[in-house]
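Lab manual, section 2.4: Encoding a predicted structure.

Procedure: take the sequence of the chain (699 residues), apply the prediction step described in section 2.3, and record the output as structure tokens. A sample record is shown.
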Amino acid sequence: MTDAPIADRRSTLRTHHDDIVDDPYEWLRDKDAAEVVTHLEAENAHTDAETAHLAELRGRLFEEIKSRVQETDLSVPTRRGDWWYYSRSEEGAQYGIHCRAAAAADDWTPPVLSAGVPVPGEVVLLDANVEAEGHEFFSLGAFDTSDDATKLLWSTDFEGDELYTVHVRDLTTGETLADEIPNTGGAFFTPDGTGVLYTTRDEAWRPDTLWLHRIGTPLSEDITLFHEPDEKFWLGAGITRSRRYLVVGVGSSITSEEYLVDLEGPLTAEPRLVWPRREGVEYSIDHAVVNGQDRLLVLHNDGALDFELVSVDAADPQGERHVVIAHEQGKRLLGIDAFRDFATVEYRSEGLERVGLLDYETSTVRELTFDEPLYSAGVSGNPEWHSPFLRLGYTSFVTPGTVYDLDLATDKLVLRKQVPVLGGYDPAEYDQRREWATAADGVRVPISLVWKRSFGEPGASARPVHLYGYGSYEHSIDPGFSVARLSELDRGVVFAVAHVRGGGEMGRQWYEDGKLLQKRNTFTDFVSCAEHLIATGVTTPARLVAEGGSAGGLLMGAVANLAPELFAGILAGVPFVDALTTILDPSLPLTVIEWDEWGDPLHNADVYAYMKSYTPYENVRDGVKYPRILAVTSLNDTRVLYVEPAKWVARLREAGASDVLLKCEMVAGHGGVSGRYNSWKERAFELAWLLDTLGLAES
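Recorded output:
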């Protein structure tokens, strides 16, 4: 082993609620300081040295991923107006190419596109590879065409800090216009195509203002349409599928409020409030026409924990509410999409995503059914108000991403495309199931498992296991296919997901029971899942590696402190491991917004004490044998700053942890490196470390 970088201890005092903390590694926060950059580069050099023996395995894993991907491929076209829009990838190219082709007047059946075969009448709208030239990092943000199909809007980020620059192109001439809008969030065209609606962020990276830019005019003349002054709320905007209303939404983690601008009038009209904000009440809206009347479908949790759907008069939204789908405990309504003749409802029941069709006349919902016991399904790619088809996406742990069109005339699912997996992939060679662990307080916690059948049923003998977890923001880790994961499964690894509290898998109460002053349930649930897999003979501590990213990285840091003896290794991606320091500082990006999720330790002594009891950096234990740890971060991440894992790794080494590595991407953001080949190499690096930790480096 090479000598690990040892960060200097420099006293930095922090005092809150009469508690004085000396933070010796806080000096690492200054990313512009040469000594900090030098330290991070030393960490990278150490990680490179300690993983040099895995270079051949990394290369094999990268080639395995690459060999299974059809590098030259096309998406299923989506019709919008008189055009079919699609994207394609080319062998050797990092990024996608966005295209369109003319559609016949009444032909709604998407053309079948074949890899490597030229598309008749293809128009290349944007080649992201050209945009990315000369840049180490590239992210495409907004992408929109005007309703009359004559203009293109797109936005770019070359740093990873999620501040995008908007560009506009005239598609009739191919000219990129002088209109360039920097430092934006979301952006899209006005319905008449003469302007751009875009959001900007405040100093805390919070989207707070909606602007109108008229194409061809100076940015100094842009008009503020809406500003949200409350630092706990962020802002977003969009146009209803009916193209009737501009919707401006503001929200925190627990409260929301929406405004309408009727597009039959001027965009600059005063936005009309739908429902006034009330703490703890969330709602979202869509516009429907029912029996010739303009209605708003409002999905809300006012007295309805798992949400209820009501209909209100669009002209008087605070008037009488008509219940469309009544609240049902354990059936979490997630979203509503209104079309001309019906609406789709997405909801979660028994831990799975489900899709139903809502009949406007009868208010009945017909659920779409699928054959597999574990799957993910959702509505996607349906820009038109009226179409004979409904586009759906489907996947599972063993089924690659699949695109269906529901033929609304015949009620049949039409397969449009399944992502090809090269090399003879046969889903019948793999299996998936759900098990249930019992948490410390008796709650049953679901665990999803996927494995290759030829290695035997999990539990018949101890197997290497890769256990993944997240457990925050009501975000669910749903079944999904991964080409990279096949490299694990084909070496005998069982991949498992611990659906811990704090996520949304089992309804809104599942989330409520894993946040604020109940956050520790997230961590102890994950430990219970690990203990269950060990107790049932699926694995042993020596053959168990845990992984989580972002808030899931907080989970990784917490379980490393709680139960280090259960794991051979822990992979923590962009980990939120110095949570208390971050949430105490309202000047940091997004901190105030986060108080609804974690609590406000700055003003509440009980929250401060509770967070201090679990935040990983402050609870590293001296003299404890920690498992192997790999922390991966990015210098330009604005969501979880690089300093958190940098401080955590320094503290772990100080406490005696002997095998702790930090890998910091010096030009990237929260999502890591950009470009598909770079992403595959990054995943190959992580998988090589994981397989080595599981004793499978030679396989």
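Check your result against the sample. The first strand starts at residue 13 and ends at 16.
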